[in-house]
Amino acid sequence: MTFGNEIRRKALLIRVAQRLSGPAEAIAGFQDIVLEELRKSGPNDALADALKVQVAAHDLLARVEAIKNGDEQPTDKNRLRHDLRTPVNAILGYSELIVEDFGDEISPSVLADIRTVIGECAILVSQIDRVLDVNPDSSMTGIDSLTAHSLEQTLSIAHRNREEMKGRILVVDDTAQNRDLLQRQLVRQGHEVVAAASGTEALAMVAREEFDLALVDILMPDLNGIELLARLKANDDWRQIPVIMVSGLNEIHAVTRCIEAGAEDYLEKPVDQVLLNSRVRACLEKRRWQLREREYIAQIEYERDRADALLHTMLPAPVIQRLRDGEDVIADRFETATVVFADIVDFTPMAASMPPADLVKRLTSVFLAFDDIAHQHGIEKIKTIGDAYMAACGIPEPREDHAHRSLDFARDLIRATSDQTEALSIRVGMHCGPVIAGLVGRVRFVYDIWGETVNLASRLEATGVPGRIHLSAPAFRLVEDAFESAPDTRVQTLKGIGEIQTFVVD
Is 272 helix (H, G, I), strand (E, B) or coil? Predict the structure, then answer.
């Protein structure tokens, strides 16, 4: 296997581990909390299944960590997929059993944590299929491309440093005798030396090959040494090559010009062998430090971009910027925004009749489609709660057309689910009003919204009609111009809210 292929193979394995470690850690962490709470508050009969979930969760985490640390480097994708899915199936199966058998006895907070475990399993299954279906020899895009590029750059630098204990040096002089003398002196010290008879020839060589150091004569007919130096330092790909100027000129003005133009050092002819060796070693040492610096920068940039990519999957861009600006508490009141709830009809019977893996795959497919639709309409996804999808428009940046955008978003959600091969039906509730939005937590923080507007939107979804949108009166007034015919008007009595007028629209 070539070095480049080995890098791509390692890139694939690292991407597998990085994509899966987040959900795997979340599953294990939340399951530890579930087990601890069940031991405190019961029911005790649920502990046996909860322990099985915990064992499977930590088995899954150990498998991912083994790949991440390089302890395991499986080459068979099908085998790897099987080994990762096995504990996931156990986690899903026993978690569903706990909810079905003891749901009425378990506290709401523990139930929420169990549903979080199930949701993270959905993400994990999706990530397993995505990363393992990527051909490591094919072109990758987005964060995968960035990761592979950063890894290849880092490993290539480290690989070169290990193999090249001596330097690869370019000698540029128009006099054959001078070139031969410098070449022989440097080869005796173990360096690899390439000679060029002119500045133009040297530029062509630098464009084709890599060098750790260049020794350049000043007086050359076609392109003098100072001009060649300026060309090298003006090019982003070549400016890191250290250059030692070599010349019979002993004028301080010439030395100054060379140093100002970017030369590392200046040697007078005839060149003293000891001094030459000392200056070359110093330049090569500096070059190696530069390569290490580039390696560290590549790693830092990779980690930064990885963190940015992860943050953008969790938080809105304006909130990320405010965190970078140093805000400790992010909380805002918005006088008017639209909140949308969408819920899959008859999801509980579906969950009882489908294998866990198929159910999670189906739910993931639906929510990924919802995410794409939200992005198209400028809607901010807030979170998923079981089989419910919660989104808002007008936060964290106010929009005058938040209601119309939300109506178009809701219509596309209904259309997307009904157009699937195995059509699903959803209920959608939508209400406009004031909300409070902010960042909650430290370890696994989330951007969430609160207020009566959120509660009413949820109630509208729960009392809605499958395949249609249930609007409050304030929401309908804002989008009334979007309907050619009169909608179905109702008077609803909603729990905790009372009697209100609502509208059912398509």
Answer: coil
Residue 140 and residue 149: Cα distance in Å, rounded? Answer: 10
Terminal Cα distance for the chain, rounded: 59
Assess whether the previous peptide bond of 43 is cis (omega < 30° from 0).
yes
Q: What is the pLDDT of residue 134?
A: 54
Tens-place pLDDT, residues 213-258: 999 998 888 888 989 999 999 998 898 899 999 887 766 777 888 8
Cβ pair 500, 472 in contact under 8 A: yes
Residue 216's DSSP bridge partners are 172, 245
Radius of gyration of the chain (CA): 32
Burial per residue of 134-172, b for 16 or more beta-carbon CB atoms within 10 angstroms, e otherwise: bebeeebeebbebbbebbbbbbbbeeeeeebeebbbbbb
Which H helix or E strand runs over 151?
helix 142-163
Please name which of 331, 333, 341 lies closest in space to residue 435, comparing C-alpha atoms.
333
> What pLDDT, on a 0 to 100 scale, did the predictor assign at position 339?
94
The 10 Å Cβ neighbour count of residue 324 is 10
CA atoms within 13 A on the CB side of 17: 19
**Long-range contacts (CB closer than 8 Å, 24 or more residues apart) made by 141-148:** 143/305, 143/306, 143/309, 144/15, 146/302, 146/305, 147/11, 147/14, 147/15, 147/18, 147/302, 147/306, 148/7, 148/8, 148/11, 148/15
Residues with Cβ within 8 Å of residue 2, at least 6 apart in sequence: none
What's the CA gap between 356 and 121, in Å, rounded? Answer: 10
Task: Give just the sign of the alpha carbon dihedral 182, 183, 186, 189.
Answer: negative
Question: What's the 3-state SS for 472-500?
Answer: EHHHHHHHHHHCCCCCEEEEEEECCCEEE
pLDDT of residue 155: 46
Instruction: Report the 10 Å Cβ neighbour count for 113.
Output: 20
Of 208, 233, 161, nearest in space to 216 by CA:
233
d(C-alpha 46, C-alpha 64), whole Å: 27
Tokens of 141: 């895009």
- What's the pTM value of the predicted model, to 2 decimals? 0.45
Name residue 385's beta-bridge partners.
388
The torsion of the CA quartet 41, 45, 51, 57, rounded to 10 degrees, works out to -80
Residue ranges in the chain modelled with pLDDT below 70? 1-19, 68-77, 130-165, 250-251, 313, 420-423, 442-444
Distance (Å, whole) CA 506 – CA 408: 10
